[in-house]
Amino acid sequence: MTRPASRTSADRLARLLNLVPYLLARPGIEIAEAAGDLGVTERQLREDLELLWVCGLPGYGPGDLIDMAFDGDRVTITYDAGIDRPLRLTPDEALALVVALRMLAETPGVANREAIERALAKIEDAAGDLVGAPVAVRLPGDARRVEALRAAVEGGRALRIVYYTAARDETTERVIDPLRMLMVGGRAYVEAWCRRAEAVRLFRADRIDAITELDEPATVPPQAVPHDLAGGVFRPSPDLPLITLRIGRSERWITEYYPCERVEAGDGDQWLVSLRVTDLSWARRFVLGLGPGATVVAPVELAEQVRATAAAALDAYAVPAPVAGSGGSAPDTAAAPDAGSEAAARDTATSGSAAS
Q1: Which InterPro entries would you find in this protein's record (predicted)?
Q2: Does any domain span residue 84?
Q3: pLDDT, tens digit, for every residue of 42-83?
Q4: How far is 297 from 270, CA to CA, in rounded Å?
Q5: What is the C-alpha to C-alpha distance for residues 296 and 288, in angstroms, rounded to an integer?
Q6: Are residues 39 and 63 in the same domain?
Q7: Are residues 61 and 100 in the same domain?
Q8: Which residue of 64, 119, 135, 350 has the fewest CB atoms within a 10 Å radius of its CB?
Q9: How many CB atoms lie within 10 A of CB 327?
Q10: Which residues of 134-158 are buried (b: 16+ CB within 10 A; e: fewer)?
């Protein structure tokens, strides 16, 4: 069975790092003996020694690279390029490590936070004043909300939450049994069994409006299996609605932000883009948000929804607002709707029509 290349590379790197101090402690050792101690063939050891010859300090000239002398089948390290000296961090390196560890400690779902905090304390203690500058690391969103979710996960408690679902533009109350906290795309999520949906769901922390810890343990049924999020939170499937849009240059960003099934060049600067959506209600709001630069090509149902919504907005501009104290009727001298707003609504209504 062939070993993975990454594993072989990792093994060789570890061997090379140990090889120099090993040889320094045994000047003039026979290559056969060294190979036996290190668990490699003589040929592999000779290849490692040849690689060491091009390793060393920046500059990579005489006096910078590791050097050695051969006497028959014996080898002696003559210059170790400082590899035997204790590691010293520069101020920038120490600060970078501290910031990275602080961020890791704040990340939801990270196991063994105590080990991270111990490592952070050791680096801060060793670096001393090098990392004395005030550096605050906080994840985006409400830190108290994330901490409450994390505590519920670690304590195994059920939660009652008020959650905003962007796909349906609605707020609901749910009771959930948390499974884990995780970070995806820079956002904190709690994955939980939702008793309302009777399924495992992901809840974005910044869309949870209220959290109440219940006086009962989390009860996760056997069929509750965490999602595989290697490909991201949203994973389009063939059973979801497929929409096709004609977009201009300024709307091309959606092809990088959303997973698209098809992107084709159209006339001029226009592109035809097809993507899966959770439902057409979300797609309608999405298209309206793009403005007049996007036109619905398919499905016809979505085009009609966009056109109807935009037309209703246009009609709202055409009705003068009632004047206070007039009994609900507006005077003949009521101000006309803003011309720019009316034109924008008319453009949006036009963009919602299906292409012929």
Answers
A1: CBASS_pafABC_assoc_protein, PafC-like, PafC_HTH, WCX_dom, WYL_dom
A2: no
A3: 999 999 998 888 887 777 677 778 888 999 899 998 888 877
A4: 13
A5: 10
A6: yes
A7: no
A8: 135
A9: 6
A10: eeeeebebeeebbebbbebbeeebb
**Same domain for 258 and 289?**
yes
- Helices 91-106, 113-127: axis angle to 10 degrees equals 160
- Asked whether residue 340 falls in the same domain as residue 259, the answer is yes
Give the three-class secondary structure for 117: helix
CATH number at residue 175: 2.30.30
Q: How buried is 1 (Cβ within 10 angstroms: 0-12 exposed, 13-18 middle, 19+ buried)?
A: exposed
**Residue 311 belongs to a domain:** yes
Specify whether the CB–CB gap between 165 and 171 falls below 8 A. Answer: yes
Contact 181, 153 (CB under 8 A): yes
CA distance 160 to 205: 13
| Whole-angstrom distance, CA of residue 163 vs CA of residue 211 | 9
- The verdict on 209 and 265 lying in the same domain is no
Note the pLDDT of residue 280: 87
Angstrom distance (rounded) from CA 235 to CA 144: 29
256 and 344 within one domain: yes
Phi, psi of 210, deg, nearest 5: -155, 145
pTM for the predicted model, two decimal places: 0.45
Nearest to 301 by CA among 262, 228, 353: 353
Number of domains in the chain: 4
Residue ranges making up the domain that contains 16: 5-79
| Residue 356: pLDDT over 50 | no
Give the residue from 340, 345, 290, 344 showing the smallest Cα distance to 316: 345
